[in-house]
Specification:
Blueprint: H1 6-27, E1 31-38, E2 41-47, E3 52-57, E4 63-71, E5 82-83, H2 86-92, H3 94-103, H4 107-143, H5 148-180, H6 202-212, H7 218-223, H8 227-244, H9 246-271, H10 274-288, H11 292-296, H12 298-323, H13 328-345, H14 348-362, H15 367-380, H16 383-399, H17 407-422, H18 430-441, H19 450-453, H20 456-481
Parallel strand pairs: 4-5
Antiparallel strand pairs: 1-2, 2-3, 3-4
Helix pairs in contact: 1-10, 1-13, 2-3, 4-8, 4-9, 4-10, 4-14, 4-15, 5-12, 5-15, 5-16, 5-17, 5-20, 10-13, 12-16, 12-20, 13-14, 13-20, 14-15, 14-20, 15-20, 16-17, 16-18, 16-20, 17-18
């Protein structure tokens, strides 16, 4: 019996995990606990996907020293020790979280935590190879250029695509949020404070991003996984190696090519584990996420989802068809393993090794293009994040009758979202941090980020998939206009 192709294995894992997770969510996600802690203390807890209540009482049943804690993602509870997420509880009250973890978790959450531990191992494997893969692939791609003019051409076309696709994504978000106006529909959500985040203006933020592009110590940038600094130094190193030329360029090219070959072999071995990693991550997401908060923010979710879907299904395939001269459906099939992994992991940086494998080995795009465009895209090209940010900010504004953003202010939101997307890290929920910048740009309170914090995880999964899909479409577009002499190890076209 022939073995299933990788993308079918991953899709099967997603479907099975979602079915199991939803079943657990419905049937085994609620648990009431009463546990004796000794010394006359009793733990009373309720665990459900929508709310967690924890209190410690004495022998008379009275709460001891106000030790009553509530985790309410919807932010409807007004008590001194209320949290939006369990992660907040763990960070601020580790002892209480440990009691909950040991005694009060529901079956669904227990299984979800085990699934997360397994999925996290897969993510750690991907992150382990991400930095050396970026360095060796980007250096190999740059040094493989015939001359500095070819490198300049490749960089210019890549950045032109990034700006064009990002601008279209944000325009889609602005149009949809003004047509649907989700902030004026459905049940109003109480405003809650987000996790502490430092707000600053757009100018200082862009300056900080510019400074981060020039690492004081490249080795420190590698140790801290600062992709922006890593990419800048690697690009500079490769460019000057091309300018030096001669025997030096030949030796460095052979060295980095050897390193890239080893990293790709390691990547292929890790990618074989993708169906199991994706299964675990999807099981965690579906087993532990609440549903009542989605009902309250349904119109907002629908607006973002429609915007992401339009950009992914209409705008980007048009780029591939007209500029890349490829069949969008066939190209999407070739890229599907990376897209499914991006959806489950919500991290474009962690998905990068699989993205490179799909583009180069399944879609047949020259390694010198994939190794240049994709690492840049994982840091600079954030179509899904930009669309999400502009919809979220305008949604927050629509919910407050005292805020009425003019066309000029909405334009500022759009431009700021486009620029802020360049500095958004390719990690889960990084877009929330950058949203603070966008809110600040139009003078809105930054603590209102908490309005959409509760539903960010599912949207993070969706927008990350769009980010990765846009990177791969960019490879197809750039490859149409950049022609290289084929290497022996590459074929002109390799189907899935």
């Amino acid at each position: 019996m022939p073995r299933l192709a990788l993308h079918w294995q991953i899709l099967l894992g997603v479907v099975i995990a979602a079915a199991i997770g939803v079943t657990l969510n419905i049937t085994a996600s609620t648990r009431e606990t009463r546990a004796d802690l000794g010394a006359g203390r009793t733990l009373i807890a309720l665990d459900s996907v929508d709310r967690v209540e924890i209190k410690i009482v004495d022998a008379r049943g009275e709460v001891i020293d106000d030790q009553q804690y509530v985790v309410d993602p919807a932010g409807q509870t007004q008590v001194p020790r209320a949290f939006l997420t369990l992660d907040q509880l763990r960070a601020k009250e580790p002892a209480i979280y440990r009691l909950f973890y040991d005694h009060a978790r529901s079956t669904a959450r227990t299984i979800g935590d085990v699934a997360w531990a397994v999925g996290d191992l897969f993510l750690r494997l991907l992150k382990m190879i991400a930095v050396p893969l970026v360095i060796t692939s980007l250096a190999t791609g740059v040094m493989g250029m015939a001359d500095a003019g070819r490198l300049r051409s490749l960089f210019g076309r890549t950045m032109l695509y990034y700006v064009a696709s990002g601008a279209l994504a944000i325009c889609t978000g602005v149009i949809l949020v003004n047509l649907i106006r989700p902030g004026e529909l459905g049940e109003q959500v109480q405003q809650v404070a987000a996790e502490s985040a430092t707000s600053e203006g757009l100018g200082p933020t862009l300056l900080r991003q510019l400074r981060s592009m020039i690492p004081e110590n490249p080795f420190q940038a590698v140790a801290q996984t600062d992709f922006l600094g890593i990419i800048t130094f690697t690009l500079a190193f490769g460019i000057f190696a091309v300018l030096v030329g001669g025997r030096t360029l030949e030796l460095l090219r052979e060295l980095f090519q050897a390193g890239f070959d080893v990293m790709m072999r390691m990547t292929m071995a890790i990618i074989k584990l993708a169906p199991f990693g994706v299964f675990a991550l999807m099981l965690y997401a579906t087993a532990t996420q609440g549903h009542s908060l989605f009902q309250r923010l349904a119109w907002y979710l629908l607006t973002v989802a429609l915007g992401l879907a339009f950009h992914a299904v209409v705008t980007l395939p048009l780029f591939v068809y007209f500029f890349g001269r490829r069949n969008p459906l066939k190209f999407a099939k070739q890229c599907s393993p990376a897209l499914l992994t991006a959806f489950s992991s919500a991290s474009s940086s962690a998905t990068l090794p699989l993205t490179m494998d799909c583009v180069e080995n399944r879609a047949g795009i020259d390694n010198r293009i994939g190794s240049f465009v994709l690492p840049l895209g994982a840091t600079l090209n954030m179509d899904g994040t930009g669309l999400f940010e502009v919809v979220a900010v305008l949604f927050i504004a629509q919910m407050d009758p005292n805020i009425n953003l003019t066309v000029a202010q909405q334009f500022i939101v759009a431009v700021t979202a486009l620029l802020a997307g360049i500095g958004t890290a390719g990690i889960p929920s990084a877009g929330l941090v950058m949203m603070v910048i966008v809110l600040q740009a139009v003078g809105m309170p930054t603590d209102r980020v908490g309005l959409i914090l509760a539903v960010d995880r599912i949207l993070d999964m969706c927008r990350t998939s769009v980010n990765v899909w846009s990177d791969m479409c960019g490879c197809a577009v750039v490859a149409r206009y950049e022609t290289f002499v084929s290497r022996d190890a590459q074929s002109s076209e390799r189907s899935a």
